[in-house]
Amino acid sequence: MTIYIPTPLRPYAAGKDAVDVNAGTVSGALDELTQTFPDLRKHLFTAEGKLRAFVNVYLNDEDIRYLPEKDATAVSAGDTLSIVPSIAGGCQVSDRMNSFLWLTRFPTLSPERRRKGRARSW
Amino acid sequence: MSVLRIAKPVYDAIRAHGEETYPHECCGALLGRGAADGWRIEAAVKAGNTRTDSPKNRYQIAPGELVKIEREARSRGLSIAGFYHSHPDHPAQWSATDFAEAHWLGCSYVITAVAEGSAAVTNSFLLAGTTEEDKRYEQETIEVFATSEAASESLTAPTESKKA
Ligand SMILES: [Zn+2]
Q1: Domain of A61?
Q2: Interface predicted TM-score (ipTM) of this complex, two decimals
């Protein structure tokens, strides 16, 4: 089967974007991958050997965390495994000072419109 | 300082995306090729912001959608080079949450401030470092390059957006 390596982990997999492995299960495939490229291990797993929380592994189009047998799920030669670190972000309450500084740059907004934060003028 | 080179139509499109979704945050992926001093972005893919609890100040790309985006990138001989999102009425600077939840080391995170519905400053931050422990954001220079119409195809979502 083929394991697709995400951009940030390619430096630890000899620059490859895909690695072929021969394994019977998802965990077997990940084991073979990290045996071939030991530097990948700490990026994928915690010290306790669990998949890092922000690392998603997809068997074809399924998140392995939601497969009944999870990483013990059987795989065959035509399957693909995708490793995708999560993508998220946002501006939280802790960023309110930034937000305040930003709004002071737009003094034309009425305080009411600033407070509601939905002052769309066109 | 590294340089993010980005095709003009792509640059325009990601800024327009922030105006479209205002007052909510938009997000998407940047596809490109690596060079010694930074990424060269040739296409962008809009993602559905899957945060439905507070899309105004949160963004998230579902991992299943990322898998499809990566497939799209591969079919075009490109790599996922980074991500973009907007800051509605908020500066084009990364937030503590943006940093904590950034895991694509070596990739560029582009933020566009959208002021009153109009795209303002666009900044790019390289997620530098080699591990979660030593990662850091480094601001990059953005260089917009002209491109032929044929090469400018962008923002073609490979999959249906889940929730705008
Ligand atoms: Zn942000």
Answers
A1: 2-85
A2: 0.87
